[in-house]
Amino acid sequence: MLRIVIAEDDINFKKELIKILLTMEGVSVEYSTGDGNDALEALIKIKPDVAILDIGLPGISGIEVAKKIREYMPFLEIIFITSFEEYIKDAVKLYASDYIEKPLDEKRLRETLDRIKKKLLEVENVIPFKTEDGVKLINPKEIYCVQASKKRSIVYTQKEKFICDYSLKEIEELLDGSMFFRTNRSFLVNLFKVELLKDNNRTSFEIRFKGSNYTAYLSKELYEEFRRRVKAIYKS
Question: Mind listing the domains of the chain with CATH numbers?
Fold first, then answer.
């Protein structure tokens, strides 16, 4: 369900907008207001998926609401609906999902909300990793392995490797245990990505991955459990 908060001071326009939204499948209007300050408080409290904001709000403008809410909800989808074309640049800077001019283009609104729905379905399958540069949203299927690095971890993905602020134990709790296996004290491995094992020394194997130069290590004490888990994957 796509949860929406509306901020629009034109009562008749707001009624029309709500009426249209209520005809859409998988959409829920959680709250509506005509005041910018009230809208900001509602967004923080409700934490919806989408904010539909008029730019010319009393109290504080829709642009200011968007700027402030970005501090609390960096991934909130924002749609601006307004008569003021000159604010398009501001909307772009705030990563707005769309900027729809009045009178309301119903077809465009529906298309935008459908696009957001699809995007959120994809996002449901990602995990947020805190890094020095912000939060990275990563689909676990893209992860080859995770390596402990003191109190933090190095995450190896198809596109990059990066250091995140979680310990290996914390990441292990976030990831699906049927997909990932702790191969020793330092590595957590995506079993679906494993290509082969190679003798490393008397206590460990070297793990090689499909389509990657990354390597990880498996304790020989855990070999039988590792083998059983890999077999279970390919039987399912």
Answer: 2-124 (3.40.50.2300), 127-234 (2.40.50.40)
